[in-house]
């Protein structure tokens, strides 16, 4: 049983209010990811859980113990650092055994645990080496190994993959996920990479400027972002935004801007009607823009000019404009499009997102 | 890599010769027979003799002085490091109030010339009843060695990445354990250099040693050497032999520490 509960958590430095009223309930065995741009407070939050930063206000409980005043070593947690922080003068074995030695485990138990962890991570042959003789990926594994030998109640990961090259990062991501499925230990993972967040997290916490923006399962965040920031942060390429006017005619709600006139899907009309005569921000995922076919009615199409074609192999990205806003469409790799030629595109109007212009909250 | 110009090599060689000649001259003199000491040709002795070393060992205060110097040097080094290393660790890793001012004070205290403190220190030593003891020299020398031990070790300790302390804290190590298991091994090369400096300072220190000592019981090598000349003659050969003997222990220590004086132990700590 190791849930982590943060209650009205705050961190203030002299000038900076780094973490603001964070309330979070990390469930037992859950893999939760804190994600956000740099300076959003995600690392500070993690470090407060670890006990490496003092808590300005609020409360953190691990299991059923409030840990505010406990030193890191008594919190029964293990952390993997961004730069691994391996002890350079110790062998891989000693690096992994250090925490157990400090806790006065018997020698035989230490040996067994280190070997078990080394086997899980495939680093048995490296146990006698020093960190400087290891590659980046191997160091990463040792750092994870040092965390898992302790069988802690909670794993903390502080951007553990960001120092690896792209290919290795994808590989380690899968390994971490597999490891978590196997160990079933609560994990809190910090990253600025939304792809990592989406692929690893049972739930994802999006943060910005010290505030929690939204907490939810990955596809929930993607499909129903609660505000414009989350909508733009989750997903790559990012969601397209354009400011539009709302009007009502012929019993339907219309979304309009220069060169675009869309009929709102029936299930949105009620929520959009109060904005009649006002402007809102329209959000469209790149995959919801496609080439128009003959069956597409004019109330879901628009005309534009493709400015850039980005063939990625599995898909093609088309850059174009609606009104003055830049749009990216993600289309099938079989589509043949020429740059600078007029083109007719269609929009999946039942999958549009709307945000209040001022509060930026989802409508 | 570009080849170094020849002139640089020559300059280095010239400097080396300039430093080495007096030492070699002493070395030669220490083995010269008495009769050839004051004649320049021949430059090299016709035969080598150990007579001067025999005199130094059997009929001078040097053996006792060497023992005193080794003892005072070792204790000074030990005391300065035992106090200086934890201080440096604290200054480098903990949030010490007014750490900047403290460091400045430590540096400033090294600026006091010894001669300015010698008379008050003498009074203190006399009041403590420490005149003519090792303790007087160890205390005085350590008080001069301590600031640069703290100063230099703080710089070395600051190079140990903060994440290592944090990892150790999570692993369950307290402050002292972290110092012993992480910071000390990682700054060992630095500590070796610092300890060597402290030892050499105590070894070469003359003013305190001359002032606080009165008898052979506590006289160190520099004092013994200075008191060597007899009443009626200057025994150049014996002095040369004694100086050579005075140089041997530091040289041996440097050779012994050589492995530790090489830096680069921190490689592989972080992946950046």
Description:
The complex is a heterodimer of chains A (363) and B (272). In chain A, the strands form 5 sheets. Chain A has a 6-stranded mixed beta sheet, sandwiched between helices. The longest helix of chain A is centred in the middle third of the chain and has 18 residues, at 166-183. In chain A, 38% of the residues are buried. In chain A, strand 18 (316-322) and strand 19 (325-331) form a beta hairpin. The mean pLDDT of chain A is 91. In chain A, 25% of the residues lie in helices and 33% in strands. Chain A has 363 residues and is of the alpha+beta class. Chain A starts with a strand and ends in a 7-residue tail after the last strand. Chain B has a single domain (6-271), classed as Orthogonal Bundle (MetI-like fold), CATH 1.10.3720. With 272 residues, chain B is mostly helical. Chain B starts with 5 loop residues before the first helix and ends in an 11-residue tail after the last helix. The model of chain B is unreliable at 264-272 (pLDDT under 50). Chain B is globular and about 70 Å long. Chain B has helices at 6-31, 51-59, 62-93, 99-109, 114-127, 134-158, 162-171, 175-186, 188-204, 207-212, 221-226, 236-261. The longest helix of chain B has 32 residues, at 62-93. The chains are: A alpha+beta (363), B mainly alpha (272). At the A-B interface, strand 6, helix 2 and helix 4 of A face helix 7 and helix 8 of B.
Please give the structural blueprint.
The complex is a heterodimer of chains A (363) and B (272).
Chain A: E1 4-12, E2 17-26, E3 31-35, H1 42-50, E4 57-62, E5 65-66, E6 77-80, H2 92-102, H3 107-121, H4 136-148, E7 154-158, H5 166-183, E8 186-191, H6 194-200, E9 203-208, E10 211-216, H7 218-223, H8 228-233, E11 240-249, E12 252-257, E13 260-263, H9 269-272, E14 279-284, E15 289-291, E16 301-305, E17 308-311, E18 316-322, E19 325-331, E20 342-347, E21 353-356
Parallel strand pairs in A: 3-8, 3-9, 6-7, 7-8
Antiparallel strand pairs in A: 1-2, 1-4, 4-5, 9-10, 11-12, 11-14, 12-13, 14-21, 15-20, 16-20, 17-18, 18-19
Helix pairs in contact in A: 2-3, 2-4, 3-4
Chain B: H1 6-31, H2 51-59, H3 62-93, H4 99-109, H5 114-127, H6 134-158, H7 162-171, H8 175-186, H9 188-204, H10 207-212, H11 221-226, H12 236-261
Helix pairs in contact in B: 1-12, 2-12, 3-6, 3-9, 4-6, 6-9, 7-8, 9-12
């Amino acid at each position: 049983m190791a849930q982590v509960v943060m209650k009205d958590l705050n961190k203030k430095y002299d000038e900076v209010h780094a973490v603001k009223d964070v309330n979070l309930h990390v469930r037992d065995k859950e893999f939760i990811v804190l994600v956000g741009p740099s300076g959003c407070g995600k690392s500070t939050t993690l470090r407060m859980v670890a006990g490496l930063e003092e808590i300005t206000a609020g409360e953190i409980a691990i299991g059923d113990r409030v840990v505010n005043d406990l030193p890191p070593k008594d919190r029964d947690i293990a952390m993997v650092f961004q730069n691994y922080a391996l002890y350079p003068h110790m062998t891989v074995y000693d690096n992994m055994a250090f925490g157990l030695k400090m806790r006065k485990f018997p020698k035989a138990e230490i040996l067994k645990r280190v070997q078990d962890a080394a086997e899980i991570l495939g680093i048995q042959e490296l146990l006698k080496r020093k960190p400087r003789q290891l590659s980046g990926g191997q160091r990463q594994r040792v750092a994870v190994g040092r965390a898992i030998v302790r069988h802690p109640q909670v794993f903390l990961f502080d951007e553990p993959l960001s120092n690896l090259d792209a290919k290795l990062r994808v590989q380690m991501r899968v390994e971490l996920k597999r490891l978590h499925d196997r160990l079933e230990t609560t994990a809190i993972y910090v990253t600025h990479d939304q792809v990592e967040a989406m692929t690893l997290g049972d739930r994802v916490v999006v943060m910005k400027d010290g505030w929690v923006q939204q907490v939810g399962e990955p596809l929930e965040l993607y499909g129903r972002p609660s505000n414009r920031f989350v909508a733009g942060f989750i997903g790559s390429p990012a969601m397209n935004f354009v400011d539009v006017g709302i009007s009502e005619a012929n019993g339907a709600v219309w979304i309009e801007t220069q060169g675009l006139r869309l009929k709102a899907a029936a299930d949105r009309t009620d929520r959009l009607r109060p904005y009649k005569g006002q402007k809102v921000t329209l959000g469209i995922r790149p995959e919801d823009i496609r080439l128009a076919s003959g069956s597409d009615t004019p109330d879901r199409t628009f005309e534009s000019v493709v400015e850039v074609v980005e063939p990625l192999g599995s898909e093609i990205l088309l850059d174009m404009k609606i009104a003055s806003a830049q749009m990216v469409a993600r289309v099938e790799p079989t589509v043949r499009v020429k740059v600078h030629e007029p083109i007719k595109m269609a929009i999946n109007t039942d999958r549009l997102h709307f945000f209040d212009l001022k509060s930026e909250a989802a409508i | 890599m570009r080849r170094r110009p020849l002139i640089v090599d020559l300059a280095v060689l010239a400097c080396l010769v300039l430093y080495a000649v007096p030492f070699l001259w002493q070395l030669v003199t220490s083995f010269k027979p008495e009769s050839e000491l004051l004649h320049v040709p021949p430059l090299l002795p016709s035969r080598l003799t150990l007579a001067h070393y025999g005199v130094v060992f059997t009929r001078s205060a040097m053996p006792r002085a060497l023992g005193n110097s080794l003892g005072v040097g070792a204790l000074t080094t030990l005391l300065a490091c035992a106090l200086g290393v934890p201080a440096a660790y604290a200054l480098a890793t903990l949030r010490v109030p007014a750490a900047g001012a403290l460091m400045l004070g430590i540096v400033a205290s090294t600026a006091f010339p010894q001669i300015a403190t010698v008379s008050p220190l003498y009074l203190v030593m006399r009041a403590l009843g420490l005149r003519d003891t090792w303790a007087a020299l160890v205390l005085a020398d350590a008080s001069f060695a301590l600031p640069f031990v703290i100063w230099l070790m703080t710089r070395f300790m600051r190079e140990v990445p903060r994440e290592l302390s944090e990892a150790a804290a999570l692993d369950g190590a307290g402050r002292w354990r972290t110092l012993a298991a992480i910071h000390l091994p990682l700054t060992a090369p630095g500590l070796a250099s610092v300890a060597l400096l402290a030892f050499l300072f105590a070894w070469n220190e003359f003013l305190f040693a001359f002032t606080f000592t009165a008898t052979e019981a506590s006289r160190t090598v520099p004092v013994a050497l200075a008191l060597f000349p007899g009443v009626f003659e200057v025994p150049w050969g014996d002095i040369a032999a004694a100086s050579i003997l005075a140089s041997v222990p530091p040289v041996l220590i440097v050779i012994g520490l050589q492995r530790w004086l090489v830096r680069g132990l921190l490689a592989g700590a972080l992946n950046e």
